[in-house]
Amino acid sequence: MAGPGTLYVVATPIGNLGDLSPRAAEVLRAASAVVAEDTRRTRRLFAHLGAEPPPLLSLPAFDERGRLGPLLGRLEAGESLALCTDAGTPGVSDPGQRLVAAAWELGARVVPIPGPSAALAALSASGLPSDRFLVAGFLPRKGGGRARALEALARLPATLVLFEAGNRTAATLDDLRRALGDRRAVLARELTKLHEELARGRLSELLARFPGEVRGEVTLVVEGAGDGGGAEEEAAAPGEVEPLEEELARRLGAGEPASALARDVARARGLPRREVYALLSRLKARP
After folding, report:
1. SS3 assignment, position 83
2. Residue 22: phi, psi to the nearest 5?
3. CATH of the domain spanning 6-116
4. Phi and psi angles of residue 154, each rounded to the nearest 5 degrees, phi first
5. Do residues 175 and 150 lie in contact, with contact meaning Cβ atoms separated by under 8 Å?
6. I need a labelling partner for 280 at 20 to 30 A (CA). Which of 26, 55, 103, 183 fits?
7. First to last CA, the chain
8. CATH class of residue range 119-239
9. What is the C-alpha separation between 138 and 202, in angstroms, rounded?
10. How far apart are CA 222 and CA 228, in angstroms?
11. Residue 100's closest CA among 77, 84, 123?
């Protein structure tokens, strides 16, 4: 009896369809079935190839664990599956990691088909040290989890690569500046697409350039701890964070609205918003 089949982990374009490699196209056409994050996006990829797709099996991020059973059944029966996501390399801040791990446990052959990656594209063009780097993906959106993640990243002597949605980019730049110091960074948006843009500078400079919503998908590359590139190291040590009351008083004095200030500070420090707002109210009431 033949053993388990093969799982191909296929990188697909992050924007420019011309970046799909001939090998990736061949694997997608020849697979018994294609496992896709969104089958509609994958159908468009096959339309670009001018080919009729094999069966398309959905593996969305919100239900990856729940849909493993039938996919593993196909591998156990000896089929070849091609795993792809909407854009880039599966498993890198995208669905696929659980399926790959389960395929190994099953004894299936796992074959990477390398290609486009937003993280590597941004890193390679950043001019920041690339001998050691961490793909940190998306930060937790709020609360203590976000504060703990930022504190951990602040200590790492490795270039950091993060992803962010356009409507949250300014807040993330500000949080990074507060937690890590005013480090050198690159903001890359719409990589390989028509409106591709890469901007380089200190985090404060990028925040001044992109103070509101950023259009498109964003990748951030930030220098690691101690990688000042000859400039004076500006990253704050964990014990050098500005005291909460001093920060609130300073920003109130600069005219920031109390409600927005409470939300911003609570998110960055992992504190309950009501506590921050109560302290703001006491500060405002002082003569």
Report:
1. strand
2. -60, -35
3. 3.40.1010.10
4. -60, -25
5. yes
6. 183
7. 85
8. alpha beta
9. 20
10. 11
11. 84
